Amino acid sequence: MQFDHLVIFVADLDSAINDFTDLGFNVTRGGSHGLTENALIIFANQSYIELLALKPFYTNPLMAIANRLGILQWQSERKGSLYCRLLRWVNGDVGPVDCCVRVTDLEATLERWKEGGLDILNSETFARERTDGEIVRWHLGGVKNHRLPILLQDITALDQRVPLADAVHANQGAELREVQFALADSGVARDMASRFLGAKSGADNPLMVGDVKISFAEQSVQGKLCLSIAYPGKQVKQLDIGKAYGLSIKLVPALS
Description:
- By secondary structure, this protein is α/β, with parallel strands linked by helices.
- Helices cover 23% and strands 36% of the residues.
- It contains seven helices and 14 strands.
- The protein has an eight-stranded mixed beta sheet with strand order 2-3-4-1-5-8-7-6.
- Helix 3 (71-78) packs antiparallel against helix 4.
- The chain is globular.
């Protein structure tokens, strides 16, 4: 497993791109898939932040009413589809909504989760048309429980979906080092992650998903998610949370 990306839902993609550019990131337009469009902030370990917005048609009053009434959610839950979780991304407030972990065998991973007592949602296949017209494809699978990430398996090459050429930032951010979740039930979430993400954790064994550390803390006013990104500087830098849509981002010395 490898931590793949964090999803940030935004009301207006252009505004979000400008805000994260002001924070010193190189923001790459990812293209469109279905009812959404996105932009990516890619790091050197091929993890990234996804800025996700609804296309203009889906923000019209009728679609908004249908979404708020839960009609789309109800339809997807009837089918036991992963869409019942994905629709929650665009049915609430802006800010961090979910994360994805990359696997090489989605079916085998989901089977292990099922054997562990989890209710598995029906997996789905997705595609995104990049701005250059190239199509990238992947599978998503997972469970309703938001304490666990969505699982992703690439169909097309990873480099097509997450191009490393774009992983150069004015603020010198390099690799995503740590993702910290602030939750009311942080202990439960930590135990579940340790059990199902296949990584040992404890005082001497931090929970690692690939090369990214996953940690948990009690809820605070700082935000429900905190990212630590390695950079070549000597001092920890806290970026403006107001421009990061509730995401707390720290640049930390690469050698620390």
